[in-house]
Amino acid sequence: MALMFPRLARNFVKAGYFPTDEPTLERVLQALAPANGSMNIIDPCAGEGVAIAETAHALGREQVKAHAVEYDAERAAHARKLVDHCLRGDLMDTIISRQSFGLLWLNPPYGDLSRDANGNLGYPGKGRARLEKLFYQKTLPLLQYGGILVFIVPSYVLDAELTGWLTHHYADLRVFRAVAETYRQVVILGIRRRQCDLAPADAKTARERLLAIGAGDVEAEELPLEWPYPSYAVPMAQGAVEHFYRVSMEPEQFADEVFRLQGLWPQFETLLGAAQQSMRPPARALSHWHLALALAAGAISGVVRAKSGRVLALKGDTHKGKNTSIEYTEQDDGSLSEVRILTDKFIPVIRAWELTPGSPRQGQLLTIR
After folding, report:
1. How many domains are contained in the chain?
2. Is 69 part of a structural domain of the chain?
3. By the 8 A CB rule, do 100 and 242 touch?
């Protein structure tokens, strides 16, 4: 079959990016069978989104919701055009609903994990700390029971730890050599099962074969040109994917969201009310208490123009102070007792910016108490 989204020329190895070659992708898709209903599928290391988009079309595009996560901005922009939902960011910085997907296409970055500034690897296992294992552990909970795994990794990554995980989590495991031998990749297919439902004998046989391929003692067969085995049926979706978002945002992503939502300006009238009308002068001079209250409420502010032509920009404020009074009382024994009484008082302060054209004080800040 011919692919609908042929690989672009810029598909090259960059920052651990090893895209699936076209012949391998074509042959893997022959092993999959669709459900009789809606399906959710995901590629957490989607690259340009070609693999997951082709999978969606092979299963029936109208009944598939394709999800993707991609770290690189350029590749994520391309993937966003091909899938239903795409997150641009680090998979470790995402929150995705567990057991929400019927197919997991996992072609993770390849390489050893590096230590952070504190000397930590951030790796939950006990074997060799590899990116492939970290992504496997992160994405395993996303796949529903009965869901299909397509796992593409270098053959030498299949050590005792990784093969142990695979045989404890998946049944009907099959492993094949990728068509393109550039990166020594193998393709592992399996059906996620509960451990209590796995046959110990089958798990032991699969483990021995995976270990032999990982050690280089046995070479995996190449993916067959025509799929001769029972198909891997992708199960129906258990419901909508409730959570699919990243925790943090890059500055440019935040700017895009602000531009898309237009901040609060579309709701300006709702949040802040109608345009302010000109205020009428009070009926009489304000007392100190009224003045402080008006300042505290922010009612005294703005540009004021006097009849003389003087222009001031005013900003009112108020702060609380204390009035202290002392009372002396003579006791029966002739001693004096002293009582200090502190009374709250509001101190209004108006700061003015002299804006009168031609004034020698133009630009100065004045304090009016």
Report:
1. 2
2. yes
3. yes
